[in-house]
Amino acid sequence: LGVREMGLTMWPVPGKAKSKLICSAFAAGAPKGASGSVFFGTEGVMSAFQKAKSGTWWYIDNSYFDKHRGIYFRVTKNALQVDPRGRVSTGERFDRLDVPIRAWCDPLGEDTLLCPQSDDFMKSTLGLKDYDWTREVRSIINTYDRPDLPVRVRHWNRDKLKAAVVLEHELPHCRLVISHSSSASITALLEGVPSISTGPTAAAYHLTGPLTRESFIDPPKPSYEDRYQFASVLADNQFTLSEFSTGVAWKWLEKQ
């Protein structure tokens, strides 16, 4: 069962103290009258998540930026990621993060790197019990008939720090990174490697568009200015636990 706090119902992942801590911090800073369901992760609460999507829900996850995982936590209302379209940022919060935006790699590597997420995440967010994202994307790419563009997979790893290290070593060999909604796509875009997301992500909304034959063969390379504004909007929509519990995050979200 969900845990009620004021007008909010928290649905932390069962058995994960971190999930409960983060949901509680967010609820602690809520203004009077706040209502809806709060999630940090969806593993084990898939049914509740699917039901919550018919009303008001808040989704919390780790930082948009791998470097700040465990320090900042992103949060969105009725969405898994923020939609940057039409938003303007001063860049103040992003500048504090010391996350570089590099020029596009020249030359790029040769490989297309697929970065799948966990089966639990895909099942719970999509509401599908049997779905193989990697197989689906491979089948789409095969229809493009470009065997000269090799495809490899960076398999999902529960240890995010190790996964980030693997990605760091992989990126120099990549011409394109494809994920559903992984932070790997954001890392690639900021490191100068083209990236495409197949899910409803901040990058897909604002920078790259969907996976198509054209975008696979000639991946989009947004300008530095577009990538900076994109990253700045992401930084505006992630917060520390202190900013959750003191209501800073809520004040920002209420203005959106």
Folded structure, characterized:
- This protein has 256 residues and is an alpha/beta fold.
- The chain has a six-stranded mixed beta sheet.
- It has helices at 17-28, 46-52, 92-97, 119-126, 133-142, 160-170, 183-191, 202-208, 213-217, 224-236, 241-245, 248-255; strands at 3-5, 8-10, 36-40, 57-62, 73-77, 111-115, 151-153, 174-179, 195-197, 238-239.
Short account of what is shown:
By secondary structure, the protein is an alpha/beta fold. 39% of the residues lie in helices and 16% in strands.
Overall SS class:
alpha/beta
Report the sheet-strand fraction: 15-25%
Report the span from N to C terminus.
30 Å
The strands making up the biggest β-sheet line up spatially as 1-2-3-4-5-10
Task: Write down the oligomeric state.
Answer: single chain
In the predicted model, the low-confidence regions spanning at least 5 consecutive residues are none
> Radius of gyration from the CA trace?
18 Å
| Largest sheet, strands/sense/barrel | 6 strands, mixed
Total beta strands? 10
* Shape summary: globular
Chain-averaged pLDDT: 92
